[in-house]
Design brief:
The chain is of the alpha+beta class. The protein contains 9 helices and 8 strands. It has a 5-stranded antiparallel β-sheet. Strands 6-8-7 form a 3-stranded antiparallel β-sheet, with helices on one face.
C-alpha cells in the first residue's frame, strides 16, 4: 500500500515530464529527476513513523515537565517563593531537554546521545560567550534566591537607589523607591556590589545632634532630652535611648541623642520628626538656649601697640619676656 501511494504521488508530480516534447529535449534528465523525487518521497515515508513517534515523545515530556513544575512550585502562600519558582522552571527545562534528546535519537537513529551531547557542549560555549551578561544575571539570580540575603519587602540601599524590594526574578531585582519609582537592577550588580539592608534586624538606631549654650546647665539639658525621647511613642526601651556630649563646638555644646525604633522607614521618619519637635519644646520650656552658630571676625592682627601686654601671646605675635617691638598704631 505504501509503495502504491508513493508511485501515485510521483506520477502526479512528474506527469508533465512525461510529455514527448520534454522527453525529446531533456532526454535522460527526466528519468533522473523522477528517480530523485521517488527517492526523496521514499526516504520521507520511511522516517515518517519515527517522526510521529518522536513528536509523541516530545509531547509526553512537555506534559510531564509541566506537571513536575506545578508540583515543585506548589505553595499554600499567595505568592510562591522565588526558590520554588526557579526549581520548577529548571526542572521543566531539564525534562524537556531530555525529551528532545530521546526524540532526536528516535527520528534519526544515526545520531547517538554521545554525539548529540558533544555537539551541545561545543554550542554551549559559543552561547555562553554570546549571552555572557544574561547568563551572569541568571546565575546570580539563582544564588540570590537560594541564599536569600534579602527578601521581598525588605528596604535596602544599593548604589544610588534606596527603596523597597518588590520582586526578585532570575534576571533582575525590582525595587520601588520611596518617591514611587520602579527600578530594575540586574542581579549581577546586586550580587557583586555592597548592599545595605535597612530592615535586616528587629530594631534600628537613629541619632541627632542638639546644641545648647555654654552658659546652660549641661546635666539638666541631658536629662530633659533623654526623658523627652523616652516619652515618644515608638521609641523602644530595650535597647535603651541615651544622650552623649559629642562636641564642644565654637558656639554650642553639642549633645548626641540616640534611640532605637522599628526599622521601617515610615517609623524612622515620623519618630525622628516627633523627637526633634518635642525636644525643642522641652528645652524652650526649661529656658535652655539653643544658640545659632556665631563667628568672630578680627579686623587687624593684634600686633599694634594699643593691643595690650606684649609679653602674652596674641594673634600673630609670639609669647615671651622680650617680645618684638610693636608697630605703631594706625590711629596715631
Amino acid at each position: 500500500m505504501k509503495k502504491i501511494f508513493i508511485n501515485l504521488l510521483v506520477l502526479l508530480i512528474t506527469q508533465p515530464l512525461h510529455s514527448k516534447e520534454l522527453k525529446t529535449n531533456f532526454g535522460g534528465a527526466t528519468d533522473t529527476a523522477i528517480t530523485k523525487i521517488n527517492d526523496m518521497l521514499s526516504g520521507f515515508f520511511s522516517i515518517l513513523p519515527n517522526l510521529v513517534i518522536g513528536l509523541i515523545v516530545i509531547f509526553i515530556f512537555v506534559v510531564i515537565s509541566k506537571f513536575i513544575k506545578k508540583i515543585i512550585s506548589k505553595s499554600n502562600e499567595e505568592d510562591v517563593s522565588g526558590v520554588r519558582k526557579v526549581l520548577g522552571r529548571l526542572s521543566q527545562w531539564f525534562i524537556i531537554a531530555i525529551g528532545l534528546l530521546i526524540a532526536a535519537a528516535i527520528i534519526v537513529p544515526s545520531i547517538t546521545p554521545a554525539k548529540l551531547l558533544g555537539t551541545l557542549g561545543f554550542g554551549s560555549v559559543a552561547i555562553g560567550f554570546a549571552f555572557k551578561d544574561i547568563l551572569q544575571n541568571f546565575l546570580a539570580g539563582i544564588l540570590i534566591l537560594i541564599r536569600e540575603p534579602f527578601k521581598r519587602g525588605d528596604q535596602v540601599i544599593l548604589g544610588d537607589y534606596e527603596g523597597t524590594v518588590e520582586k526578585i526574578d532570575t534576571r533582575s531585582t525590582f525595587m520601588k523607591t520611596y518617591d514611587g519609582k520602579k527600578v530594575l537592577i540586574p542581579n549581577g550588580q546586586v550580587y557583586t556590589n555592597p548592599m545595605v539592608i535597612l530592615t535586616a534586624y528587629k530594631y534600628r538606631r537613629s541619632e541627632y545632634d542638639i546644641g545648647i549654650g555654654y552658659g546652660d546647665d549641661l546635666k539638666s539639658a541631658c536629662s530633659i532630652i533623654l526623658n523627652t525621647i523616652k516619652s515618644i511613642d515608638g521609641v523602644v526601651s530595650d535597647p535603651k535611648p541615651d544622650v552623649l556630649v559629642s562636641e564642644l563646638a565654637g558656639s554650642s555644646v553639642n549633645i548626641k541623642a540616640r534611640w532605637w525604633t522599628d526599622p521601617e522607614r515610615k517609623n524612622i521618619v515620623n519618630i525622628d520628626s516627633e523627637i526633634k519637635k518635642q525636644v525643642k519644646i522641652a528645652l524652650d520650656d526649661a529656658n535652655i538656649d539653643m544658640p545659632y552658630p556665631t563667628q568672630v571676625i578680627l579686623h587687624h592682627d593684634q600686633t599694634e601697640s594699643v593691643d595690650g601686654d606684649r609679653t602674652k601671646q596674641r594673634e600673630g605675635w609670639p609669647a615671651g619676656d622680650n617680645p618684638p617691638q610693636a608697630r605703631a598704631s594706625q590711629n596715631n
